[in-house]
Amino acid sequence: MKTPSFVPRRGILLGGTAAAISGALAAGTAPANATTTPTPVQPVATPGGKLRFGSDGKFKIVQFNDTQDGHLTDKRTLELMGNVLDAEKPGFVVINGDVIDGKPTTATEVKQAINNVVMPMESRQIPWALTFGNHDEDSLVHGTGMTEPKMLEFVRGYKYNVNTKDDAVFGSSNSQLLISSSRGNKPVFGIWLLDSGRYADSKVGGQDFAGLKSYDWIRPEQVAWYREASKATEQRFGKVPSLMFFHIPLWEHHHMWFGSQFTSNDADHAKAAKKHGIVGEKNEGVYVGAFNSGLFTAMLERGDVRGAYCGHDHINTYMGNYFGIELGYGPGTGFGPYGLGGAKQHNLRGARVFELDENANDIYTSTRTVFAKDHGIDMDAARQPLAEPLPLPEGM
């Protein structure tokens, strides 16, 4: 098959071999329609384990969300992660944003907070990556200096991390990861990771965000990167079905639940639940970005994304099929941040599991949620922090 003359800037990880990719998109905050000159692929060393279907043709992905704690992480967060990993034995894990919170007061404490929640994968030699959420830079107010680019540089030092290098596209955790067939090196499934940002700027066009859910949004240049990377991947390998992960939900996550754009009531939801096959719970609002990113229409256009999953709203767990694309949540994993409250505080702490089978027609076969309450974990509402952080690996 003909190799395209260009591929997009953001890195692709293919079967354990990373390629730094440039061209296709304008750097930094350049307008989305800016003209750029494509540049060729520049190979780099692989950052971690190989993503490949097992000899039985199966592959599992586990999504953890909102581990969100300091350097003395609630020990039950790690117990839950370990139990899920041991039970599911995934080939890949994503911590989908709000990996840590603002408790750390030094750069070392930031690293310790991250280390606590990535060691469940590292110690089991499971390839993993993360996206950033709105809370990951909160420690900057304490003078830690740990920006998302610095955190990305840190996590890429782990043996089994497969995040790609940072570049000038908005955000620091955008990656395309490709999973190779068990029968060769051709990728047969993909994973998209997007950085959905933090908070909306204080003003745009001289106007503030009063009355809006003033979170950040996936930017046009990120949508353009996804579109061009998707096209380049199709040119090289054919259409590769994929899942996409980002922290802050899309407007369409809200629209799907209510089956409408401008009303939000129980009668509308009853119809939507039937139309879209919605399962799971919604216990709080859908805290979207201030503006609609247009990402959903890009996914419809490209036709390769089978499901787009977020976190952010810790006590929402629902998913459904919205015009051919699954939209859903991974439940909040961390025992540190807010939950349901009262005696039920931790009842929805959990993870989401995705099942793939390269011998099935569409490869992606199912998804389900798993919860701490079903793993025999202590559900007392009071915090149970570690006595001390887990030790950092040698050289980190």
What secondary-structure arrangement, pairings included, does this model have?
Elements: E1 12-14, E2 17-20, E3 42-43, E4 58-64, H1 75-88, E5 92-96, H2 107-122, E6 128-131, H3 148-155, E7 175-180, E8 187-193, H4 220-237, E9 242-245, H5 251-258, H6 266-276, H7 295-302, E10 305-310, E11 319-322, E12 325-329, E13 350-357, E14 364-371
Parallel strand pairs: 1-7, 4-5, 5-6, 8-9, 9-10, 10-12
Antiparallel strand pairs: 1-2, 2-3, 4-13, 7-8, 11-12, 13-14
Explain what you see.
The protein is of the alpha/beta class. The protein has one domain (44-195, 209-374): Purple Acid Phosphatase, chain A, domain 2 (4-Layer Sandwich). The protein has seven helices and 14 strands. It has helices at residues 75-88, 107-122, 148-155, 220-237, 251-258, 266-276, 295-302, and strands at residues 12-14, 17-20, 42-43, 58-64, 92-96, 128-131, 175-180, 187-193, 242-245, 305-310, 319-322, 325-329, 350-357, 364-371. The strands form two sheets. The protein has a nine-stranded mixed β-sheet with strand order 3-2-1-7-8-9-10-12-11. The chain has a five-stranded mixed β-sheet with strand order 6-5-4-13-14, with helices on one face. It is globular. The protein starts with 11 loop residues before the first strand and ends in a 25-residue tail after the last strand. Residues 1-11 and 15-49 have low confidence and may be disordered. Keywords: Signal. Residues 59-315 form the Calcineurin-like phosphoesterase domain. This is Calcineurin-like phosphoesterase domain-containing protein. InterPro entries: Calcineurin-like_PHP, Metallo-depent_PP-like, TAT_signal. Residues 1-26 form the signal peptide.
